[in-house]
Amino acid sequence: IPAQRVPAVAELVDLADGLHDPALVLTPHLGPDGELTDFRIHHANGRFMDPAGRPRSTVNGALLLEAYPMAADESELFDKVQRVYATGEPFRAQRMTLTALVDQVPLAAVADISVSRHGDSVLLIWRIEDEAARLASLLQHAQRLGRIGGFEENLLTDEITWNGQLFALYGRPPTGTPVSLRDLAAHAHPDDGIAIGRFLRAVLHHQRSASAAFRLQRRDGVTRHIRVIAEPVHDADGSLLAVRGAYQDISAQHWTEVALAATRDQLAHTEQESAERNRLALQLQQAIMPPTRGPIAAPGLQIAVRYRPAETESLVGGDWYDAVVLPSRRVLLCVGDIAGHGIEAATGMVVLRNALRGLAITGAGPAQLLSWLNIVAHHLTDQVTATAVCGLYDPETRTLRWARAGHLPPVLVRGREATRLPLVGGLLLGAVAQAAYEEAELQLEADDTLLMYTDGLVERRDTAIHDSLAQLLATAQSPAATLEHRLDQLLTHSKSDTDDDTCLVGIQVV
Question: b vs e for 221-245, b when ≥16 Cβ sit within 10 Å of the residue's Cβ?
Fold first, then answer.
């Protein structure tokens, strides 16, 4: 910074340090041609906290767009700072959305913004809207539903932090002493020591994320089946500082798997026993996905469902659907298809369907929900892959936000015209460890009908898929007295010859 600008900047730094809100002192960064290309973060005050957890020393001196590339996106924060610098006119805004990248995932926050020029510098101040109580409540519900407890262990001070759910999982009072990772084997079944040792070496020695399943032996004599997942936390120099992660009680899932495994063993040797195994899978599937059910109650919508099982019992599939009203009054609408057949497909269907319900309570959009569901499919299941369409309907605005993971897009029936929604991008679930999904928004009108379906409705052995889709659109735009009649009509005109099951959900705006 040239000498003539130092006093003004120094005074602005003192002003920023006296504020009770986070603030950045920015100075112009000029390109080789003398044109303004960015702003240098000259100083971050004591109230500043980086969304990605970086220390102030890392942020100080960085270019604004390098440290926060999302500032140039929808919020147009960079443009507003640039305009204030050019005109000298201050900018104020309430409830402005700020977005930052945290581990390559965009996280948004609502804040009041103030931007003002002082000499040749700019002061950027913001106040994040206090949603801590609401978010804490949502997190608590999600942890309770998923039976998940979180922890962080400082390896330098040996300080261990547990949340309340983890104390409950261990059967300890909230005032009890947390268990160190290094002492984990002492609280587990002796036969699980090797798995725990491998887990600890991966996290503490190799310093990479890892997970393990073990049997927790509590002081009260109760044994719980637990999955622990942890990741290392490094300081600015790359040294291992702490470990944070979560424990999940998977006892119910374990005993379900044991019961299913026992069933498989008992029914493995004779044709009659094989038939019993197939009927078990079919009963499990139909318990979750009944072939026909009445209209589903949802604000502003009439929802009807048709499910057509595979004709061959041994080919019981993993098609699933869900329609549920969330605490926010928005309606979660989804259809999915697990790859494969039999008990494995049926249990995979249950895992993904229930996981999506739990994730939806966070209030995240469909694209983020599918990104999280992909992690569940890749890391927390036995190599499950699946396709899905996920939508969130807002009854107040009649808007539908939706995303897809390798699945056929929904069909919109408006009047006498039926059209497929755009083919937004998205990989099938479970194929890769991390995946991003595109999201689209649809403004619906009264009497609109949206059709969500699995591939059993359109796939034919000797027919190209685009021909089958064209036939579907032609049938969908035919007049129908009720939504129920429309779904029955679609199933009647789409006889499957691929031994695949079919799921069809109709959503009509009322």
Answer: eeebbbbbbbebbeeeeeeeebbeb
| 3-128 has CATH 3.30.930.10 classification | no
**Tokens of residue 504, six digits:** 């069809």
Name the residue among 334, 295, 322 with its Cα closest to residue 508: 295
- Per-residue confidence (pLDDT) for residue 97, from 0 to 100: 80
Give the CATH number of domain 289-509: 3.60.40.10
User: What average pLDDT does the structure give for the chain?
Assistant: 85
Q: What is the CA radius of gyration of the chain?
A: 27
Q: Which residues contact 29 (CB under 8 A, 6 or more apart)?
A: 36, 37, 38, 39, 40, 63
Contact (CB, 8 A) for 451 and 491:
no
pLDDT at 275: 58
Give the list of residues 6+ apart from residue 30 with CB closer than 8 angstroms, or none: 36, 37
269: DSSP letter: S
**Which burial class, exposed, middle or buried, applies to 267 when counting CB atoms under 10 A from its CB (0-12, 13-18, 19+)?**
middle
212 in helix, strand or coil?
Answer: strand
Q: What count of Cα atoms within 13 Å lies in the side-chain half-sphere of residue 3?
A: 0
Least confident of 73-87, 173-187, 262-276: 262-276
Beta strands 502-509; 301-308: pairing state: antiparallel
Provide the CB-side half-sphere exposure for 331 (13 A, CA): 22
What three-state secondary structure class fits 11? helix
In a 10 Å sphere around its CB, with 0-12 CB exposed, 13-18 middle and 19+ buried, how is residue 104 labelled?
exposed
For residue range 253-311, what is the model confidence (pLDDT) as tens digits?
A: 777 777 777 666 666 655 565 555 556 555 655 555 554 455 677 889 999 998 887 65
Q: Evaluate whether 3-128 and 289-509 have a shared fold.
A: no
The CATH code of domain 132-249 reads 3.30.450.20
Torsion, Cα of 201, 205, 210, 214 (10° steps):
20
How many beta carbons lie within 10 A of that of residue 251, not counting itself?
16
pLDDT higher than threshold 80 for residue 56: yes
Residues paired with residue 7 on neighbouring β-strands, in sequence order: none
Edge-to-edge strand list for the sheet holding 160-162: 160-162, 148-154, 240-249, 223-234, 210-217
For the chain, the domains span 3-128, 132-249, 289-509
Provide mean pLDDT across the span 401-409: 97
More confident residue, 141 or 197: 197
Q: Which residues are CB-neighbours of 35 under 8 A, at least 6 positions away?
A: none
Least confidently predicted of 63-67, 196-200, 237-241, 251-255: 251-255
Secondary structure percentages of the chain, helix, strand, coil, to 5:
35, 35, 30
* Rounded Cα gap, residues 387 and 385, in angstroms: 7
Alpha carbons within 13 angstroms on the beta-carbon side of residue 486 total 30
